[in-house]
Amino acid sequence: GNTALDPEITDNIEISFILKNKYSINTFFSYTKDPISKGFIVGENDRILVFPMNLSSNITWGLRLGSGSLNPYPWWQINTNISMLSKWFKWSINGKEESNHRVTSSINLNNQFRLPKGWGAEITGYYNGKLAEGQSVIYPMWMLSAGIRKNILDNNGTVRLVVNDIFSSFRFKTDIFSPAQFGRTSETEDNQYIGISC
């Protein structure tokens, strides 16, 4: 840990517009002083020390578009959220100003299908582009999940089969920037599962 951490303080403003309770536009801006982030400092013998530290600032701004319950056909419902955001981190090491800036897009899409005889299906997809996070850049991530359901007991019950992260694609790849060297990490979370519920 790091007992010398200062609290991070964020000023945030958002403006939203909702049309027909179905479409939304949201713009936002935030400024964070002393953001707490995973830090990379050069120690003795060129070892890299990794611990939480305060950066100088983080400016985040962007735009989110959302739509709920779109029905291209009576049996098909779509909910979607699309966003574009800019994150800009600044910090100082050994008297030198450093920065990390990225513009990132993301999309979250949910499709629900009403099928005959009490059947239904769902497909959900998620994508997030390259993202600045403190002294790191996180590579794009994506995931696809699906499910099928059947109403039973005169529509008083439901049986569901769900497959999460179908392609085992949700992986964290990160580029790390430190004054002494460049590093890359790769982490895989086991989010893939098949579940049955009643």
What does this structure look like?
This protein has 198 residues and is mostly beta strands. It is 0% helix and 73% strand. It has no helices and 15 strands. The strands form three sheets. The protein has a nine-stranded antiparallel beta sheet, with no helix packed on it. The chain has a four-stranded antiparallel beta sheet with strand order 9-10-13-14, with no helix packed on it. Strand 13 and strand 14 form a beta hairpin. The model has no long low-confidence stretch (mean pLDDT 90).
Secondary structure class reads mainly beta
The H-and-E topology, N to C, reads as EEEEEEEEEEEEEEE
Rg, Å, rounded: 22 Å
Shape: elongated
Gap from first CA to last CA = 44 Å
Q: Major sheet: order of its strands?
A: 1-2-5-6-7-8-11-12-15
Proportion of residues in helical segments: under 10%
Overall pLDDT: 90
How much of the sequence lies in strands comes to: over 45%
Low confidence ranges? none
Question: Secondary structure elements and their pairing?
Answer:
Elements (H helix, E strand, L loop, with lengths): L8 E11 L3 E11 L2 E7 L5 E7 L2 E17 L2 E18 L2 E19 L4 E10 L2 E3 L2 E3 L2 E12 L4 E8 L6 E7 L4 E7 L4 E5 L1
Antiparallel strand pairs: 1-2, 2-5, 3-4, 5-6, 6-7, 7-8, 8-11, 9-10, 10-13, 11-12, 12-15, 13-14
Which features does this protein show?
198 residues, mainly beta
